[in-house]
Write a structure and sequence with these properties.
Elements (H helix, E strand, L loop, with lengths): L1 H20 L5 E4 L5 H13 L5 E4 L2 H13 L6 E3 L3 H9 L7 H9 L12 E2 L2 E2 L2 E13 H6 L8 H13 L5 E2 L9 H11 L1 H8 L8 H15 L11 H6 L5 E5 L3 H6 L8 E4 L11 E11 L7 H10 L2 H9 L15 H13 L2 E4 L1 H4 L2 H16 L3 H21 L2
Parallel strand pairs: 1-2, 7-8, 10-11
Antiparallel strand pairs: 3-10, 4-5, 6-8, 6-9, 6-10
Helix pairs in contact: 8-9, 8-10, 10-18, 17-18
Amino acid sequence: MTARWMRTVLAAIAIGASTMAFAEPLKLYHDKYFWQESMKRMATYAESKGHPFVPTPYATDQYQAFIATGVQSGNAPEIFTWWNGTKLKDLVDADALQPLDDVWKEAVSAGQMDPASAELYTVDGKIYGVPLHLSSWVVFYNKALFKQAGLEPPKSWSDLLAACDKLKAAGITPFDATVQDGWRGFIWFEELLLRTDPAAYMKLNSGELSYTSPQVKAVFKLWGDLYAKGYFTPATSNEEVLNFARGKAAMYLMGDWAIQNIKEGGMKPGEDFGAFVMPNVDPSLPPSVINEGAPIVVSKAGAKNPDVMAFVKWWMTDEAASQWAKDPSLNIGNIKAPKPNVVVEDVAKVLAATKAKPYPRYWEASPSDIVLPAVEQFNKFMVTPTPEVADQVMAAVDKIASDYWAAHK
């Protein structure tokens, strides 16, 4: 009897040891491959604090397919990054995600998070994410190139155009913009529409405005004129951030999450580059800014894993937020954590002083079934920015949008 009991115990220990040896580590799936090295360093720090994870990257297009397949099969990853807005709602509607209201309640009660930040991740009254980053979309500028051309950051659209002309006269390309990675085509489209008619921008996202409307045509006309004047770098480069860091263009419109990538290119925030909010084309418009709030989300299966839930709670603390602010220089909105860098701090002060109204990014504000093919069309225009291609692009996207809204009314 004793021998049999001993064999049973030894077998159980062996099975337990085997299970421990081959236990799956907590994987944080993401498409932010450009932060992978920073994420690895964050993983090392997290492990030292008792919250180990393995950052697992995918290219953006492959990533969306990977997550969609997992959701459709009922086998979504336990924890992964995503987008807010319509893309977040898609997963909520598919019943794939776990509400995280309790996590937020704990962080707000501890004085770590502003409850207003949770609005970005709220769908049908419940919160479905914690911030991977909270970013404003700004124009970075190369201080040395501005000094060379005798420029200060522009405060109006006319100032901006005058600056572009001075830069061109000095042999400097004003703007860095490409179609790298396939998703960037919407950036200048959304910004120009916001700077000319913010009401039209929101109506377009909700299906109340056509892509062949006068407001959209005006954007393509303005966009095309900027290209015709030679204000942009070639759209086909695959080294967009490095182009800016190497001085191939004086300005770069992007989310402030790109600061780490610019730093890795050899530029120091505040010393080598600064940032300003794009001026309105129409000076009568109130100040505004595009806001992006990428979330980390938890699947229904992930919510059953204590390690996953412990990790997302830890992620919201000032301990984790402060480390994330250092590397890769990202802000999650933790009140007690320092701002990631002087550029983010300076922009935050300007936005607060001007009471700039935040607007959602096109990528999250419009339905994915419109955004993804629309971006491909916008890319075509950036590669061949002619009036003829503009007309083709507007017609193609309008057909996509019209078909979508007709089926979703």
